[in-house]
């Protein structure tokens, strides 16, 4: 199984730390965020497609053509045009097969991801106090996704997308429209996909989004207290 990890962003909210270092290479407990993400990948993943852009050579130099027993293929020179744009850039390396999609600035639980890949189409969600800065997910009584909204002012639920998704080639039948800010959001593609196909929401037990410099110390404290992801 392949995993797509989008790691091309500039990490503007992490400045000044990201002025010379790409966000996925910032360290937590002595190793880059992206290494922690590799550690969380299920054993079923044998190949990783890394989407890189800003200071991407640092990522490529560190991880090389394989890491942790997994082959790595790179999609380079990605532009900051949103999550759907990033996935579409990887399309030629994915075909119609099922794949895992993740981002390079969230720490997840390997056990949660393993639960997610048990379904043909699925996404990890977690209840949060203020979901307005995330993609918000609405589910029915059977945990089927019925709606998704990107960063709504009035959230229709308290479930936020953690960024982990299990998809296949069908997602490419639902290209996202360009938003007013010029970006293309995978939330829009998922919303359309869920209208035609069963997209299951799996509630995550653990999720640490990393958005600001102060998050690094906070995440280190949580991981130290927890022992491991």
From TrEMBL:
It comes from Candidatus Sungbacteria bacterium RIFCSPHIGHO2_02_FULL_47_11. This is Nucleotidyl transferase domain-containing protein. One of its GO terms (molecular function) is nucleotidyltransferase activity. Residues 2-222 form the Nucleotidyl transferase domain. The keyword Zinc-finger does not apply. Keywords: Nucleotidyltransferase, Transferase.
């Amino acid at each position: 199984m392949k995993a797509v990890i989008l790691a091309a962003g500039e990490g503007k909210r992490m400045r000044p730390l990201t002025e010379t270092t790409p966000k996925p290479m910032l360290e937590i407990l002595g190793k880059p965020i992206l290494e922690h993400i590799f550690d969380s990948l299920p054993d079923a993943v044998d190949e990783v497609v890394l989407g890189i852009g800003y200071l991407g050579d640092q990522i490529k130099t560190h991880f090389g053509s394989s890491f942790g027993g997994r082959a790595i293929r790179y999609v380079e020179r990605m532009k900051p045009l949103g999550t759907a744009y990033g996935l579409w850039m990887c399309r030629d390396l994915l075909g119609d097969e099922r794949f895992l999609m993740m981002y390079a600035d969230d720490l997840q639980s390997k056990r949660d991801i393993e639960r997610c890949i048990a379904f043909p189409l699925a996404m990890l969600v977690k209840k949060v106090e203020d979901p307005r800065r995330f993609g918000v997910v609405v589910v029915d009584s059977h945990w089927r996704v019925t709606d998704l909204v990107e960063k709504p002012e009035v959230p229709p639920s308290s479930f936020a997308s953690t960024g982990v998704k299990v998809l296949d080639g069908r997602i490419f039948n639902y290209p996202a429209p360009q938003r007013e800010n010029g970006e293309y959001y995978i939330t829009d593609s998922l919303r359309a996909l869920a209208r035609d196909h069963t997209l299951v929401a799996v509630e995550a037990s653990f999720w640490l989004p990393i958005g600001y410099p102060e998050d690094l110390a906070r995440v280190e404290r949580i991981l130290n207290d927890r022992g491991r992801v």
